[in-house]
Design a protein that fits this description.
Four copies of one chain form a homotetramer.
Chain A: E1 2-11, H1 16-26, E2 30-39, E3 44-53, H2 58-67, E4 74-78, E5 83-89, H3 94-104, E6 110-117, H4 123-128, E7 133-135, H5 143-154, E8 161-164, H6 173-178, E9 183-187, H7 199-206, E10 210-217, E11 227-234, H8 241-264, E12 268-271, E13 274-277
Parallel strand pairs in A: 5-6, 5-8, 6-7, 8-9
Antiparallel strand pairs in A: 1-3, 1-4, 2-3, 9-10, 10-11, 12-13
Keywords (chains A, B, C, D): Hydrolase, One-carbon metabolism, Purine biosynthesis
Function (chains A, B, C, D): Catalyzes the hydrolysis of 10-formyltetrahydrofolate (formyl-FH4) to formate and tetrahydrofolate (FH4).
InterPro entries (chains A, B, C, D): ACT-like_dom_sf, ACT_dom, Formyl_transf_N, Formyl_transf_N_sf, PurU, PurU_ACT
């Protein structure tokens, strides 16, 4: 008996659940968990089904499902769960360390293939954790050149996702396009507050009582991609910028790791600039 | 087009979702939301389905569902959502007020039929909110007599649920039995910590850094019924018993009202001493 | 023995705490709680001292404190704690009800003198709670006229604070100026996100995973006054605008009531566009 | 200019703050932050004062403070903040990794001198982080022998604190006595709920909706020491024991690291079985 995760999105219409479950039954698949959502505004249907059974021929199953669904349906059958990822960093260690520790102790739900940094600061730690570290400086070169060098490294690996773990360079629309839907970023504010640079300084100057962080898919609009997870933490007048940054790092790593867990377990649909997440 | 909520629990077996959805399709019902859970330990299946359609004859639909489910299946079809409730209180106003305010402004999701108190303190407020108040003192009578008087009042109404909103008398197993699965209590601690009397005093003496509250179904074991909702709040050394009580009241009313919302929307299954809640 | 709360703000310099405590000792006052904060950026010192003792002549004590502090010092001696407030509302009941319930049961820490609404919706409930309700419509008149009518009512009372409990009209700079530092508003978003109208709609369209609320002092820049309290709550793809509004109301009332408690206990200093809060 | 942290506890009496601040002023010390607390039940006074100034001779300052305080006063002057710690572990990595990562990147506020484990599982990781790992098996020896071996290792270092980072052996009263007030433990439940073994299994069987963790000082009563920090996380019917353990680990490490930060910054007083924490 194997486990199979089925992700389906399509225009909403009457009878979808019945159609899908009948196909699964006809293949002797047993549903162990099923979640669905109808986006009423966009008349769209989303479902995630975990099932068990024998299914050597997932192609046939997929074909059968497509035959019983509206034309625009997207069907994704996932039989293995271990994702392959690259991590991009600058100088801050806290998100990278959390990822590499979980990777080391096999609780990340993914394999980190490499770390790419635009500085050397995190090489030592990364290599101690047994992961190859590639230094690609952004200095003295233009963005296309910088990104070409990164891509050359990424191309050496078969990757499902790129994780920007406090990578402080803005990626071009072209680069983002090449990895469409595969780049996850941690932004150090609760978007849409404090878009752009230095959010903790902005937060300090505004005198807010909460700070936060946002994990999101990267699109070509800076800080505008579909949001996956957000959390906040309370601060008070005793927090200067430095203390906000320190408290914020704890939120950032929690938010990013929660997003990665959902991602690696195939629980996230992207629909326009929003996410649908079946926890 | 009407809305129908279907609750089903039964022993787990292969094909349940398919069987159920096929019956619904054959009745031209459209599933708008569906949640299911398999309790692997007890091999039990639970589902809550919200659907729309024409269904004058829910009896036939229920019959058809039962025919397609294992013998021990329980099927509950709910076409109207407004529940009728009685509230039992002692002297503290905070939970009662929250309930009666929402009742007054039609956002409770239920109708409060009456309030019964073993003191007179809350009569004035209750009556201002337009709800009949019945005083049943527990003094100078034994528990069977006390409970008989309460029952006599309750019997004047058609009630779905009794809400113990800081009702500080312990109900007998007999009384609880008469309203099995229909009594909800708010306990002023995060169970199972601080079972029994004066939990805030216990919390203060232990020097805890969080206090909490628990909404649960009442069974004949005091404070042992299936838990619906729990929340906690942080306290510190500045909190004496009085300050803990004050902070605790805010938690209590939030926890109780959240539980009532889930209850009145038919989102809760009870299974043994646990709840399964489809939020 | 009486209780006295002392609030002092002044330019920071060496020896302030010693100077202050020596004056208190010379008046036989016993310090039971003391909090202080130095705003290093602005070289400003703030302290809140709760003490007990005999002090018929607070004028002399104030004089003595001022003599021992830098020139620009502001000293505030508070011997009674019950504040007098007016509440301004539009149509939503949730914040007003929370305030009037606590007022009714004497746990607000203030007396509500009157409620002013630009609609009639909340008259009935307000009057049941024993508080005078004044209807001042904003229709068919200009803002100066509208505000003049409100002021005429407010002038009938001796008021410490005006609470905007979901009052949906923007007050003019002139009006705000007349009650400088005395107007508290609840804004239905975690500022500075979603400034302006319809924040829940903005939140829904952006696909955020948290919503929030902000209580703040009102200044003549809309939504830009010093922030007192903020909280957030998690939402997900199941939340439409309606559900966000509903969940948001619970956050709004919690945030506003927490701010009022701090305010009525004289725990808040305003410094520029920020607050310093001694919890 | 140096920084000095002063911790004082003594029986409460009138004039303590004045006495203390006058001594500090006479030594030209500038108070930059001061917190105090009066435990009314036990008539005890606690203060933490951060000040700056010149103070080669802290002995004289301490003497002067003692002369101006009640007989039983305890005065602690702390001029350097870096604490030296040993970490005791069993097999679980999550708390240890968090500590060693922060140690590695110099954000722990302490130096980890060594790790002692009763299994070999965590040696590899510890040594990669550059910290000596000592294996002391508890097998085939009695507790006095086991603890003697641990002590022999600890004696090689000058240690301020022992951190039990999921160390799953119960220490004897004798051992605890030797490091009185210096041992911190992370317990995997929100005490006092689920004292003892296997709290997540207990939590699962009780059907709770929150799990938690507690960091506390170790005394000779198991799980009864003064509590430093506690947090909770929500769980639901989808959580089996395994999922509760997984979610719990995130809470455990957050709770422990928060406690260590407070400890290493000298913010905690122990008074009886409680803590007073000046955040």
């Amino acid at each position: 008996m194997n486990e199979l995760t089925i992700l389906i999105s399509c225009p909403d219409q009457v009878g979808l659940v019945t159609n899908i479950t009948c196909v699964l039954a006809s293949h002797q698949l047993n549903i162990i968990a099923m979640r669905e959502f109808v986006d009423e505004a966009n008349k769209a249907f989303f479902t995630r089904i975990a099932c068990t059974g024998e299914f050597e021929e997932t192609d046939k199953l997929k074909q059968k499902l497509l035959e019983n669904l509206p034309n625009a349906a997207v069907v994704n059958l996932i039989t293995q769960k271990e994702k392959q990822v690259a991590v991009l960093v600058t100088k801050e260690y806290h998100c990278l360390a959390e990822i590499l520790i979980k990777n080391q102790f096999k609780t990340l739900g993914a394999n980190v293939q490499c770390v790419i940094g635009n500085y050397e600061e995190l090489r030592n730690f990364t290599e101690k954790m047994g992961i190859p570290y590639f230094h690609v400086s952004h200095l003295e070169k233009d963005k296309p050149q910088f990104e070409a060098e990164i891509k050359e490294i990424l191309n050496q690996f078969e990757l499902d996702y790129l994780v920007l773990a406090k990578f402080m360079r803005i990626l071009s629309a072209d680069f983002v396009e090449s990895y469409s839907g595969k780049i996850i970023n941690i932004h150090h504010s609760f978007l849409p507050a404090f878009i752009g640079a230095n959010p903790y300084k902005q937060a300090f100057e505004r005198g807010v009582k909460i700070i936060g962080a946002t994990a999101h898919f990267v699109t070509d609009n800076l800080d505008e991609g579909p949001i996956i997870t957000q959390h906040t933490a309370h601060v008070d007048h005793n927090f200067g910028v430095k203390e906000m940054v320190r408290a914020g790092k704890e939120v950032e790593k929690a938010v990013l790791l929660e997003a990665l867990e959902l991602l690696f377990e195939d629980r996230i649909f992207v629909s326009g600039n929003k996410t649908i997440i079946f926890k």
